[in-house]
Amino acid sequence: MDLDERKKKILLAIIKTYLDTGEPVGSRTISKIEDLNLSSATIRNEMADLVDMGYIIQPHTSAGRIPSDKGYRFYVDQLMAEKEQQVEERERETDEMRGMLIEKADKMERLLKQVARSLSANTNYAAMISAPRYNMNRLKFIQLSRMEAERIVAVIVLEGNMIKNQIIDIDEPIDDETLLKLNMLLNTTLNGMAIEDISLAVIAKMKQQAGEQAGIIAEVIDAVAESIKADEDLEIYTSGANNIFKYPELADNERASGIITAFEEKKQLTDLVYETLSHSDEKGIQVYIGEEAPVENMKDCSVVTATYELDEGIHGTIGIIGPKRMDYDKVLSTIKKLTSELDDMFKKS
Amino acid sequence: MDLDERKKKILLAIIKTYLDTGEPVGSRTISKIEDLNLSSATIRNEMADLVDMGYIIQPHTSAGRIPSDKGYRFYVDQLMAEKEQQVEERERETDEMRGMLIEKADKMERLLKQVARSLSANTNYAAMISAPRYNMNRLKFIQLSRMEAERIVAVIVLEGNMIKNQIIDIDEPIDDETLLKLNMLLNTTLNGMAIEDISLAVIAKMKQQAGEQAGIIAEVIDAVAESIKADEDLEIYTSGANNIFKYPELADNERASGIITAFEEKKQLTDLVYETLSHSDEKGIQVYIGEEAPVENMKDCSVVTATYELDEGIHGTIGIIGPKRMDYDKVLSTIKKLTSELDDMFKKS
DNA sequence: GTTAGCACTCTAACGAGGCGAGTGCTAACA
DNA sequence: TGTTAGCACTCGCCTCGTTAGAGTGCTAAC
Question: Which of A154, B12, B200, B257 is most open to solvent, judged by the fewest CB atoms within 10 Å of its CB?
Fold first, then answer.
């Protein structure tokens, strides 16, 4: 059997109606609304076919139909294709969404939180955003300073001006000269290096070059190396998790508990971010419907993610989690708008 | 009417039974369990009195009784008094709770997260912990380093080894000598100063002392001053928010949504922390029952908080949020154990 | 002051019945 | 051959009445 033009129209009508009402939609409803004038009986026949083909489901014999994951997938693909076309006109529209314009925030953290909040408030779904991830991270600058006699603070600046600190306790006092030498050694050796390339061999070589006072220097080098290597886990900010309670199909204890846990533990969101980033070259926006989601606790949700670019090779992810019957149209626009706004903002600054 | 000895016993029996079962407790149950052998009829009479006095409530005419907020308050006060006595023996007990011993964590953040997780896992309630707050924060050390020609990174170390970074873009290149001078100026003037005391006057004086190159130096000083002043908002880590779904009286949409929001937004938790810190001199452990909680969304919960001390004047708060019928006994022990463990850990290091 | 006994109250659980939405199928129609 | 009208049927949901059980409040006796 084949998805002819009429079946497509009917399918889309069913899905749209369901998105509106949240209730199973019957044949009569469609027969009335639709521009192709058909009786409910005809619609019923077509619906039966659509059920056979797996696009829709009837919860029980005498209820209307609701979209299956496959149905949603069809709808979303359709929608994305349309968006692709419209993108140029849209871009030039004066947008009413300016309300969500992000005020200038001095700190990245605050900005990200604000974005998440804006996103959840605008869509009524749960939102998340990951701090930008440095793909090929290079070392830009290292500075050791003596804090107290036997305590050094190391400041490590990475490409993208991300800063790490490390306090190093040493066994014996270190004199200014040694400290200076150490600073030079570290900077000449490591600056511009990708973190992945800082191997044991490199570290060993540095220790060797240290010559005298090898003991204390080795101590410091090890501490610095460790600090560089330690990749902190991805910062993720969330907002509007409580929105899930607005959708009865997600608000039962078990599901809600799962989603809340995912939002609190962040572990699963981290997976989601990596998944998205690994696909980011393809398209920009990803839609996961139900089982498609790479996250266990979101099998009953739809997840929409997108990648934003802060700078060459520095990416982050924003995402929306909601019920399968989410307003995909609005979500796609919002998320598209927001990513481009983010991109602009970073490029400007 | 007066709360005589027998009434107290009965009241405590009711509350304990209710904590166990979570269901309204009837007169027969008490008459059987209790050591003071009384018939259910007598118990009923006493219960009627207790209702009049406001310690217990009957949900409807023919159900058992459940404790009121006032009843819980009585119970908790009783319990805290007992604890006070036992504290010495307890302290010496070999504790079975060693399972929750915190593994050595290199980073404060990780430690705090771990504590929160341990707390929620051990109690089956929702847990939170605030990062330590520096009451009278003093400046320990400042270091400016040149990153690029017109870009400086300032590292500011506060008492308690809390570190702040700030990247400063300047208008014209700065030479080594000026940088050195600036470093000395900042350190001699500011080291050991409480942040509250860094007034405009102090800053003005520094600018004046700068002499030549006043322009560039003023720029840097302002940036540093601003960075010092900017008090980041309290970091709060949470864990086990999903535990609330284990308690039907909290798991309905409205309540759950409220609690989840409080946990996600952190704003209300921040209030809670400040409230606790402001009382921290009194006792150590605070119990808020129902309406007593300083947080709107937790009117149906009980909240137990305690203060831990990282160092003189540096405090943080840990807290547990659960249903009113929480196992106060266990929670109090757990939280007491944990704070003292935290105190020890910090004092050691 | 305590207890036994009894009528009363209230909730939760169950099942029957009716309603309404919607289906699937058949037969007729263009 | 595709479309439609008509009709019997299914099924979830709501309401209502009934029942069982737990627990009370009160009275009268000890």
Answer: B200
